[in-house]
Specification:
7% of the residues lie in helices and 43% in strands. It is mostly beta strands. It has 2 domains: 118 residues, Quinohemoprotein amine dehydrogenase alpha subunit, domain 2 (Lipocalin, Beta Barrel), CATH 2.40.128; 166 residues, Jelly Rolls, CATH 2.60.120.560. Keywords: Signal.
């Protein structure tokens, strides 16, 4: 039996459509800084798309809260993007469903939460934040004067107090951020937490170095991890009631975390914002944020050295 050959115009059309689909898919691959218009506020989110094999698109997603979670399959056809993932901290019984399409070089669409509420979102390609050469460093400066909240402000009703040279949040309340913003820096910060409490230090207000009293294995959500992205190489926490220290270097996306004198993260790339970030504007300087909404926490000796 003879097979009917396709005419040349049809072959060219199919080739053109296939090439266009490949170009669109290539344009989608990468990291995207996402902003969701959610109930009167701009909620930061993030997602990444990469190939698994030749045809399948997979990746990760970070919502307004919680950690990075895997996206098993991105559907992308006709210029339209869609994916669905199980809920993490969202309320409701359904999945989180995201739909969108290109508007020029950016993306826009809707996100539907498990409770059925739908919100609009936009996304721009995340910057690489690569730095050429080694930075030169300025002089260390104290961010906390040990007397009052000069240089800081609460994001909400303030519960933070200063007592005996210690910055304290005696109970869950507002997060605290610096008035100043930063790009690349070295940070020394000491902290102490009671049993079962939780806090975190957000670098540029976007990347959380976790502080908590849970876990004895070096996973991505335990103390000294970059929450949801980078686990520590080992667990060196002293435990509740003990003063502990982070020495953190952030240059572009590259982070090193020295915890209680041991390097537990060595020059690793932070791929995207963590849940609870102030915003998703990764190309801009950002403040230091210390978390006060997850239980009692104390800080002291907060010293930053900025890159020139």
């Amino acid at each position: 039996m003879k097979m009917k050959l396709l005419s040349l115009p049809i072959v060219l059309l199919l080739f053109t459509l296939s090439t266009k689909a490949q170009q669109d898919t290539a344009a989608l691959i990468g990291r995207w800084d996402m902003t969701v218009a959610m109930e009167g506020r701009q909620a930061p989110s993030w997602f990444e798309v990469y190939r698994s094999g030749y045809r399948t698109l997979v990746g990760e997603f970070v919502g307004a809260g919680g950690s990075a979670r895997p996206v098993s399959v991105y559907q992308f056809s006709g210029g339209k993007l869609s994916f669905s993932i199980p809920p993490q901290w969202e309320q409701g019984n359904g999945n989180v469903t995201v739909e969108g399409n290109f508007t020029g070089d950016s993306l826009a669409g809707t996100i539907t939460h498990p409770d059925g509420k739908q919100y609009n979102w936009t996304a721009v390609r995340a910057p690489e934040l690569k730095r050429t050469g080694e930075p030169s460093w300025g002089q260390p400066q104290k961010l906390f004067n040990g007397k009052d909240l000069t240089g800081w402000h609460a994001l909400g009703t303030n519960q933070w107090i200063v007592q005996d040279g210690v910055l304290k949040s005696p109970h869950s309340g507002a997060n605290l951020v610096t008035d100043d913003t930063f790009t690349d820096f070295k940070l020394h910060i000491e902290f102490r937490y009671p049993e079962h409490s939780n806090s975190g230090v957000y670098l540029r207000g976007r990347y959380e170095v976790q502080i908590d009293d849970t876990g004895d294995e070096p996973y991505k959500d335990v103390i000294s991890a970059i929450y949801g992205f980078i686990p520590p190489s080992e667990m060196v926490a002293k435990g509740p009631g003990e003063w502990q220290a982070y020495d953190i270097t952030l240059v572009g996306r590259m982070v090193t975390v020295v915890f209680n004198g041991k390097t537990v993260i060595c020059n690793r790339e932070i791929r995207g914002i963590t849940g609870g970030a102030l915003n998703s504007k990764e190309g801009e300087p950002g403040p230091l944020l210390i978390q006060g909404d997850h239980g009692p926490i104390e800080y002291r000796n907060i010293i930053i050295t900025k890159a020139k």
